[in-house]
Specification:
The chain is mainly alpha-helical and about 280 residues long. The protein has a domain of about 120 residues: Tetratricopeptide repeat domain (Serine Threonine Protein Phosphatase 5, Tetratricopeptide repeat, Alpha Horseshoe), CATH 1.25.40. Helix content is about 70%, strand content about 0%. α6 runs antiparallel to α7, α6 runs parallel beside α8 and α8 packs parallel to α10. The longest helix has 20 residues.
């Protein structure tokens, strides 16, 4: 602006602004670079920023399914579910042989409580990538949502056989076994989970199962206190249901938490829980 004020050309020779138009090769490089930055932002837990960058990347390079995948993942993590579905559809159109796209679309269907839609998508993805533990885990969750517990157990066991440290898969085996009435085996698997990962969910579930066998046991009460202190949201039946806890386990947990010995722990958890966590 300063130069313009002192070096204005005559009107007849007014400067015409030019716009730099990069070549297709430069656009390609820019799109991939922006896509990489978006992926890094996802790893850093910044999905909204990642979605904005990934949207720019696909505008620069609309025929690269990798960039559409990054955009879909960013949209999923930032709760832009409709947009994520559109991005996944575009990515799948470009590369229908990529198993991860089928799995991601199935995950979206599960988020939308559509297990009947998710299962065929998972089956198609598993034809392309038959040793994917995460896909078997999602398949198990879909079967739980259908209350097909035997199929769910089979899927979770396949997931943990492919990845022995997959504690969530072992935890969900126990959830299913408890609903099927096999409390003793469920307890053994929750104990196995806690040897892999000390987490509030298996702690409280194990506590409820132990209490159902031996009401008021010291171990059950201790585990319940630890679980509620670590994650108070598990005091909420709606949160338990969201985590796919069945009716039997929720009832057993309600019985446990009604113990007068746990009154203080339950009240603290209720005060600290996030009511939106069960929505």
């Amino acid at each position: 602006m300063g130069l313009a004020s002192v070096m204005l050309p005559p009107a007849s020779r007014a400067l015409v602004p030019t716009v730099y138009l990069p070549s297709s090769q430069e656009l390609e490089g820019s799109g991939i670079g922006i896509g990489r930055t978006a992926a890094q932002l996802l790893k850093l837990g910044q999905p909204e920023e990642a979605a904005r960058l990934a949207a720019l990347a696909v505008r620069l390079q609309p025929n690269d399914e990798r960039l559409w995948s990054v955009l879909a993942e960013a949209q999923l993590r930032s709760e832009q579910l409709n947009q994520a579905a559109e991005s996944l559809a575009r990515a799948k159109q470009l590369n229908p042989k990529k198993a991860g796209l089928w799995f991601a679309e199935a995950s979206l269907a599960l988020r939308d409580n559509r297990p009947d839609d998710a299962i065929p998508l998972l089956d198609e993805g598993l034809k392309l990538d038959p040793n994917n533990p995460g896909a078997y885990f999602d398949l198990g969750n879909a079967r739980i949502m259908q209350t097909d517990y035997r199929s769910a157990l089979k899927a979770f066991e396949k997931a943990s056989s492919l990845k022995p440290t997959f504690w969530e898969a072992v935890n969900n085996q126990a959830l299913v076994l408890f609903e099927m009435g096999n409390t003793s085996e469920a307890i053994q698997r929750w104990r196995r989970v806690l040897n892999i990962k000390r987490n509030a969910e298996p702690m409280l579930a194990l506590a409820a199962a132990l209490n159902s066998q031996s009401p008021g046991s010291d171990e059950a009460l201790t585990l319940a206190r630890q679980a509620l202190a670590e994650d108070p949201n598990y005091v909420l039946p709606a949160h338990q249901k969201q985590q796919l806890w069945g009716l039997n386990l929720r009832q057993a947990t309600s019985t446990l938490l009604s113990s007068s010995t746990l009154k203080d722990a339950v009240e603290r958890a209720e005060a600290n829980a996030d009511p939106s966590s069960g929505r």
